[in-house]
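User: Can you recover a sequence for this backbone? Please restate the input before giving your answer.

Assistant: Of course. Working from this structure:
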């Protein structure tokens, strides 16, 4: 199947998963939003764990934390979204910002700024994906996402020091 079809199917599947996470039985208002985000983040975490087991086959263990984050930006992002992240920034103290200027899960929303408040629903899975991948590689972290202008977004990865 061509890459374009794979990408479209993945986006449609993600949209349906988001809709199901906010479907019946999840509550309404802030409670329903939190429940949906938790479900999506948990799904992403498990997918991230599975991908981490498959992607770095034969690769040597990452020596530095930064090498692991670069792996996320190049290899993981490439495998999942068909491109690398657009930017990586760090404070060299365990905080990393991964930026995607044309995030595929947000491109359908790009035509209306009124949808900005809906964006977190479409980022929770990816936050879990990053956290699950890192966890499988031996790094505990917290991951949050932010959007100021659609379809660009930033994922903040904060490494939990032992």
């Amino acid at each position: 199947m061509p890459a374009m079809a794979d990408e479209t199917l993945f986006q449609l599947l993600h949209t349906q998963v988001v809709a199901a996470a906010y479907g019946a039985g999840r509550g309404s208002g802030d409670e329903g939003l939190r429940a949906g985000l938790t479900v999506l983040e948990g799904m992403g975490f498990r997918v991230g764990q599975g991908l981490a087991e498959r992607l770095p086959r034969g690769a040597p263990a990452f020596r530095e934390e930064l090498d692991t984050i670069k792996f996320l930006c190049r290899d993981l992002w490439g495998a999942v979204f068909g491109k690398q992240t657009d930017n990586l920034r760090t404070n060299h103290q365990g905080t990393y910002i991964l930026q995607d200027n044309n995030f595929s899960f947000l491109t359908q929303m790009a035509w209306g700024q009124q949808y900005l408040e809906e964006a977190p629903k479409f980022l929770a899975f990816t936050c879990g994906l990053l956290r699950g991948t890192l966890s499988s590689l031996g790094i505990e972290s917290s991951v949050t996402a932010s959007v100021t202008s659609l379809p660009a977004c930033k994922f903040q990865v904060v490494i939990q020091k032992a």
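That completes the design. The radius of gyration is 16 Å.
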